[in-house]
Write a structure and sequence with these properties.
Blueprint: E1 3-6, E2 13-15, E3 25-27, E4 32-35, H1 54-78, E5 81-82, H2 90-96, E6 98-100, H3 101-116, H4 119-124, H5 126-140, H6 156-165, H7 167-179, E7 189-191, E8 193-194, H8 204-222, H9 226-230, H10 233-242, E9 247-251, H11 261-265, H12 272-279, H13 292-296, E10 302-306, H14 316-325, H15 332-349, H16 358-380, E11 384-386, E12 389-393, E13 396-397, H17 399-433, H18 439-442, H19 452-467, H20 482-495, H21 499-513, H22 517-528, H23 534-547, H24 552-564, H25 568-581, H26 586-599, H27 603-619, H28 624-636, H29 640-653, H30 658-677
């Protein structure tokens, strides 16, 4: 049925007389003009503004998360597992030559991108899963975030990628020979399995804000896949490598009606309809091969097929035309100012005091740029909106605008405050680095005051650390750095022989921040530095380890000190407690076996130690030092021939070990002496 359209302006029309011979007359009254309405399309022809393949990709991404959870559960259950399949692990490869599972995975992903394009980003990235889930949830409540378009901020991921994966190599081979000549390339090693799966991941206190900012908030502010565009360092490599890929989204021009549905459904913010018109394919490196455009095209004009690599396509003319039509969100002045703000924010939060992970810091920087830019526009423009909220209308601020300005001011103040703490800590750390006395000497009973220049550096570092200490003594209201600052202050105080202050600082941290293994170790070292307080040191270690028997490093330190003090019975007792706390732990088994073999006074203790060493060898074969330890135990059992065979096996496994060779020669001398005596 036709619908009428009411013209806003009077329409002069001719009204005929009933008689054909009448003279026509005109009328100025508004009239309704009937417009035709297109017939309803059939179900098969109806345009869909949602991907019909989206649920398939959602299931795949959910499978990625299930695999990750299963990986974690396996580690918790078995204690050892495959090392994290995380591209950031590649930093160990470029820094220290350790070929990790993450490095292998990242390399395979880059090679596949060079052939197929950024399919891994769209179908295999757990972070894309979080962002797409956020975009889906926002769409359910009627919010479809508009993509933020910046010319300069988009280069941040590439800069981060170069910093993470290229700078370490450049420093080692181009810079270090001039300023750090002792830094040598260690050669390549492999690390496939791990017993500490979570070592390189943040804890919950950092992980939850990380997910919220870099996975959820960034989508609400910057648009779908906003973190991929402005914060992901891996995307900084995937995007340029995508330029080489011959597999692309291509178009059949005979079928394409330029309806724009492809652009409307794209969750990667690619202007698909423009690119297929100009180039016959999608050349934007932001395309993640999600296939939403392919599955949503009402005419089946799009497909995934072979095309020309984007790097070989001349896009100058088309890009200039598109730039004239496309509206960038920032002027060039704003681009420069807010890019600088982004860099400063990244350095402010990526510091020593707080220690925000780089991937989290990039998300904070991107969000800070957008929030600040929008606040600037609220102050500058007469009318500003955001997701339907009228921040400012015809020069008048609304409640939403006032809230936004207040939030932006608080955000910038917080970033500046954190940057100040990190900056002061960096200066303190520089002065601290000039105090080169080892902790073993500082906390020894015969330590002396340092030389004058080192004393000055220690005092300067103490002054700066005091500024970032916990309030009210210092300026910090952020608990994350309190403990570490107090530990450094304690070390420096001990270095200048102010032991009472050192002990006061660490005991205050213990009381304020809770029990901590590193703090317990420093307290023990301070007490041990006084010969007269040896009983107090023994009592402190016993008290701390009774409360926390799982603290393995503290137990190792206690056992080493007790062994130096000749407290061999206490050495064996502590090693037994350590194994009882961690009955399946290989290191705890090795520690007790060595204590029994080296310090045991009864045959049953030595026999027990030998049996434990044999058990560790069955768990980890081909360990030369374990065979050497077994040989020493057999020597104490006077099983000389068997001991010599174990030493031979140890030297076969570790032919360059001077320690094992020295033990072997000592055993040969002992065997000869025993033979002579017999």
């Amino acid at each position: 049925m036709a619908r009428g359209w009411q013209s806003p302006h009077p329409v002069r029309r001719t009204i005929p007389c009933a008689m054909d011979s009448c003279t026509p007359r005109t009328s100025d009254r508004p009239v309704s003009i009937a417009l035709p309405v297109l017939p309803s399309a059939s179900a098969s022809q109806r345009t869909s503004f949602g991907s019909r393949r989206g649920w398939v990709r959602a299931a795949v991404l959910a499978g990625v998360w299930l695999f990750m959870i299963g990986h974690l559960v396996q580690w918790l259950a078995l204690g050892t597992t495959l090392a994290p399949i995380e591209p950031s692990e590649s930093m160990q490869t470029v820094k220290d030559g350790i070929i990790t599972v993450g490095a292998i995975f990242f390399g395979v992903a880059l090679l596949s991108t060079a052939l197929l394009g950024r399919w891994f980003c769209g179908w295999g990235c757990h972070w894309v899963a979080i962002q797409d889930a956020t975009a889906w949830a926002l769409a359910r409540v009627g919010i479809r975030p508009k993509p933020f378009r910046s010319r300069l901020l988009v280069w941040l991921p590439l800069c981060l990628a170069l910093y993470m994966f290229v700078w370490p190599l450049f420093y080692r081979f181009a810079v270090a020979p001039w300023i750090q000549p002792d830094l040598r390339w260690p050669g390549f090693t492999t690390q496939v399995m791990t017993q500490d799966f979570w070592a390189t991941f943040p804890g919950l206190a950092m992980g939850i804000p990380f997910v919220f900012v870099s996975g959820i908030l960034v989508v609400w502010l910057l648009g779908s896949k906003g973190y991929c565009t402005y914060g992901c360092p891996y995307g900084g490599f995937f995007a340029p490598v995508d330029e080489l890929a011959p597999m692309r989204i291509v178009v059949d021009h005979d079928r394409c009606h330029s309806c724009g549905v492809c652009t409307a459904v794209c969750t990667s913010n690619v202007r698909v309809h423009e690119e297929i018109k100009d180039f016959g394919m999608v050349v934007d490196a932001g395309c993640m091969k999600c296939m939403d455009c392919v599955s949503s095209c009402p005419n089946e004009a799009l497909s995934f097929g072979i095309g020309k690599p984007a790097v070989l396509i001349d896009r100058t003319a088309s890009r200039s035309a598109a730039s004239a039509e496309r509206r960038w969100d920032l002027s060039w002045t704003e681009e420069i100012v807010f890019a600088l703000l982004g860099v400063l924010t990244l350095f402010a939060v990526r510091g020593i005091y707080i220690g925000v992970p780089l991937l989290f810091a990039s998300g904070i920087a991107a969000c800070t740029v957008f929030v600040s830019w929008k606040a600037w526009r609220i102050l500058r423009d007469p009318s500003v909106s955001f997701h339907g909220m009228r921040l400012r209308l015809k020069g008048k601020l609304g409640p939403s605008g006032i809230t936004w300005l207040a939030a932006a001011a608080l955000l910038l103040a917080s970033v500046s405050y954190v940057g100040l703490l990190n900056g002061i800590t960096w200066l303190a750390d520089r002065a601290d680095a000039r105090v080169t006395l080892p902790a073993e000497y500082i906390f020894s009973t015969d330590a002396q005051a340092p030389e004058a220049s080192m004393q000055q550096s220690a005092e300067r570092a103490l002054q700066l650390y005091a500024l970032v200490a916990a309030a009210p003594e210092g300026w910090s209201i952020i608990p994350a750095g309190w403990r570490q600052v107090d530990l450094r202050r304690a070390y420096l105080s001990a270095a200048i022989r102010d032991m009472p202050t050192a002990e006061r600082l660490v005991r205050g941290s213990w009381k304020r921040d809770g029990a901590d293994e590193a703090t317990a170790a420093v307290i023990g070292r301070i007490i041990r530095s006084f010969v007269s307080r040896t009983p107090d040191a023994i009592a402190w270690y016993d008290e701390a380890l009774d409360a926390h028997p799982e603290w393995q490093r503290l137990r190792e330190e206690q056992i080493t000190w007790l062994d130096q003090e000749g407290e061999y019975a206490r050495v064996i007792q502590s090693a037994r407690q350590g194994l009882a706390a961690r009955p399946n732990d290989l290191l705890a088994m090795r520690r007790l076996s060595l204590a029994l073999v080296e310090r045991g006074t009864m045959p049953l203790e030595i026999d027990e130690g030998v049996d434990l060493i044999r058990q560790t060898i069955s768990m980890v074969p081909n360990n030369g030092f374990a065979h050497a330890a077994l040989a020493r135990g057999l020597m104490r059992q006077q099983h000389f021939d068997e001991a010599m065979a174990e030493f031979a096996r140890a030297l076969e496994l570790e032919p360059n070990s001077d320690v094992i060779r020295s033990m072997f020669e000592e055993a040969q001398a002992q065997r000869g002496s025993a033979g002579s005596g017999g």
